[in-house]
Design goal:
This protein has twelve helices and nine strands. By secondary structure, it is an alpha/beta fold. The chain has a single domain (88-301), classed as P-loop containing nucleotide triphosphate hydrolases (Rossmann fold), CATH 3.40.50.300.
């Protein structure tokens, strides 16, 4: 028995014997008084503090007009056009992606679910076609705005397809210059609720830039606005591009475009192996020969 336990037992014996011990009562009162501030402090620490408000994203300071006529002539979706099979197909494609980003009655939004990377195994499979059409289709939603990011630092295909030619500051400039804000390089467009972020000044260190802390912080900021904005990244193909592989771990969802009749099965398996650590990977089968009653876009989850 410890010294403290022996003393406590002796005090209890004295109390039972009727011995008055005012000094012990004073000590007990003092101990209780000393304990109260500690208890109050512990209770105060247990009260959760409200999360700080998320700073809003500033509106783009620059704008550019997408060549909608050129897109339509090339077979892309455009706002206000008559209902087409392509429109219905992309309505089906976007629905599970939006559900993962926004959540629903039975599930919470997935982490970074609004950051959606569009890629392929190799070039020429239709990833930029998919990225642009998906962005335009999502911009037609009532409750979402869309940022389309050209993340192909070599080809800059999205900008060319949209008719936005010439050098512009963009993603790479934003990541390298801490004085720049997204609003300085993001472009408002003539498609309601659709903005565009060019890849920016070409730099041979694109892989390292996309893997940097600046990129992580930028994506974290975009993910904070998950309930209001979807971000579509038109990324390079996975097999030949180190930039694409640098982007994969930072994305919430990945859509792998596979061209029917062209992409070798081995290439698809290689690409899927690179994506095995991603939470959500879906494939879109492009230009498949199917009966007219079904979509030429096969859409499967892995």
């Amino acid at each position: 028995m410890s010294t403290i336990e022996q003393a406590s037992k002796r005090l209890e014996q004295l109390r039972k014997a009727g011995v008055e011990m005012p000094w012990a009562q004073d000590a007990q009162t003092a101990a209780l008084s000393a304990a109260q501030p500690a208890a109050l402090a512990a209770a105060h620490q247990a009260i959760p503090l409200p999360a700080p408000p998320i700073p809003p994203l500033a509106a783009p300071r620059h704008s550019a007009d997408i060549d909608l006529r050129g897109l339509e002539e090339a077979g892309y979706l455009v706002p206000g056009a008559a209902r087409t099979r392509l429109l219905d197909e992309f309505r089906a494609v976007k629905r599970p992606l939006l559900a993962n980003a926004a959540g629903g009655k039975d599930k919470e939004p997935m982490a970074r679910g609004n950051l959606i990377m569009i890629t392929s195994s190799l070039s020429g499979e239709g990833k930029t076609f998919t990225a642009i059409n998906l962005a335009i289709s999502m911009a037609m939603e009532l409750n979402h705005s869309v940022l389309l990011v050209d993340a192909d630092a070599t080809r800059m295909a999205a900008a060319h397809r949209l008719g936005l030619h010439g050098p512009r500051r963009g993603l790479i400039d934003l990541l390298l210059d801490p004085r720049l804000d997204l609003a300085d390089v993001e472009l408002a467009t003539n498609v309601d609720k659709l903005t565009f972020l060019p890849v920016g000044t070409q730099d041979g260190r694109a892989t390292e830039i996309f893997s940097s802390d600046a990129m992580t912080a930028f994506l974290d900021r975009l993910a904070e606005h998950q309930h209001e904005r979807v971000v579509i990244f038109d990324a390079p193909p996975l097999l030949p591009s180190a930039e694409a592989r640098a982007l994969v771990p930072q994305m919430g969802q990945v859509l792998l475009v596979v061209r029917a009749g062209k992409t070798h099965r081995g290439s698809v398996h290689q690409a899927l192996a690179m994506l095995e650590d991603s939470d959500i990977v879906m494939t879109l089968l492009n230009q498949s020969s199917t009966p007219s009653s079904s979509s030429p876009y096969g859409y499967y989850a892995y």
